[in-house]
Amino acid sequence: MVDLGSGAGLEVLRAAQAVGPYGQAVGVDMTAEMVVLARRNAAALGVANARFVVAELESLPLPEGFADVVLSNCVVNLVPDKAQAFREAHRVLRPGGRLVVSDVVADRPLSPELREDPRAWSACVAGAVSLREYFRLLAEAGFQAAEVLEESRADCGDPWRVSLRSVTLRARKPLG
Ligand SMILES: C[S@@+](CC[C@H](N)C(=O)[O-])C[C@H]1O[C@@H](n2cnc3c(N)ncnc32)[C@H](O)[C@@H]1O
To answer: Which residue among 36, 78, 100, 168 is best mutated to probe the pocket of ligand 1, counting the most ligand atoms within 8 A of its Cβ?
Structure first.
């Protein structure tokens, strides 16, 4: 299992339990401080089958077909080149593997000013794209059977008054 943008590593540590001692959970994050924290959390909990690497989602240091499952929670909105991040997720998945992504999506196009606002980026607002764009990017990267598993209104406490939703999506890398 690979977690894209693993932060403090909590999903990776839970997944490491789920995959069992012969499986492996790998967290990828571009922020070295978060990777240090995640490694510390894994050590504190005695989790031996979790690994954390510093890298950008757009260039994953993992081989083709490495993972059964790729996860990501509240990260893709922060990635400037989402198309490349999804291509990389597709590359590291084995055929038939699945991608499960939770993220913030925008119900309406965001203004150019908002898209340039660093505060709105760090609040996970400025980089949000529409659900339709999400589906387009997934299909373009080669994913199939994309579907929404859950959705709810996202409350980012946002002073920009944009309409956002929190969505969990699943898509598959085709077998053939
Ligand atoms: C909002 S946090 C979410 C962390 C974790 N997934 C969670 O749910 O707790 C976003 C994380 O994504 C990482 N991140 C953002 N853009 C990234 C990129 N292009 N490549 C790798 N990591 C990225 C950040 O360093 C940060 O740790």
So the answer is: 78
> Which residue is closest in CA terms to ligand 1's atom 25?
31
CA dist., res. 22 & res. 83, Å (int): 32
- Exposed / middle / buried, residue 83 (Cβ in 10 Å: 0-12, 13-18, 19+): middle
In this model, does residue 9 exceed pLDDT 80?
Answer: yes
Which atom of ligand 1 is least distant from the CA of 31?
25
Residue range 47-66, pLDDT digits in tens: 999 999 999 999 999 999 99
The model's pTM is 0.96
Structural domains for the chain: 1-55 (3.40.50.150), 63-176 (3.40.50.150)
- 119 pLDDT above the threshold of 80: yes
Cβ atoms of 134 and 169 closer than 8 Å: yes
Ligand 1 pocket test target in 29, 73, 122 with most atoms within 8 Å of CB: 29
